[in-house]
Amino acid sequence: MRVVWLLINLVLSIGIFSVPILAIGWLDKNKNFTGKLSKIWAQWLLWSNGIHYDVVGLENLEPEGKYIFMSNHESAIDILLGVAGIPYNIVFLAKKELFQFPFFGWAMNAAGMIKIDRRNPERARKSVNAAVNTLIHSTFSTLIYPEGTRTNAGEVLPFKKGGFILAIQSQLPVVPVTIIGAGDILPKGTFTINKGGIKLIISKPILTHNLKLKNKEQLIENCRNTIINNLSCTLEPQKADYDLNAA
Known about the structure:
This protein is of the alpha/beta class. Helices cover 41% and strands 13% of the residues.
């Protein structure tokens, strides 16, 4: 029954919020208006389904900062948690094919989602360059799930390189985000919503100033290790403070 309730709220909320996003999103260059609507939408879905969460570590971020957030991915609700819990204007990267769907694709365009073309290496390179240019000349941040797929609770798969290449090329700080408990609320491969608490740990930014692409493996390792340490910590979360420029 809780899954049915979730689906009802999902359809209802999309119907309500997509109209103003489509109507105004094209004129909202920095996506401040659409970003606020997206946060209200995510908070509504979490609240209406009795999903509660706590956010730890916001003091690690600058109020006017711009970041590339990198998060582990245990559940289908992780995107809602990221949008609702991170108090920044978040725009996602999405496969180019998704923009081709009528209405849904229009709404993604209006909300400022960034197209990524993965069909061949040349197109992928061009789309990453376009994404870098968009991030550099905008005021919003982005949230990436570098594992590329959902995992079992507490598991962290190897990270894909694309988001970290994007971070190095844009020179934006990488912020590890650890989601704890979402996999128990809505486990991978199930439609059962369980009760419980969720915690989002915002670790200190990993600076990317003057990094080169040859540093991407170290950047990936530092980010992934921070998330693994937070997942394994039972008391106080370990907040890593890496500056690869000092290496």
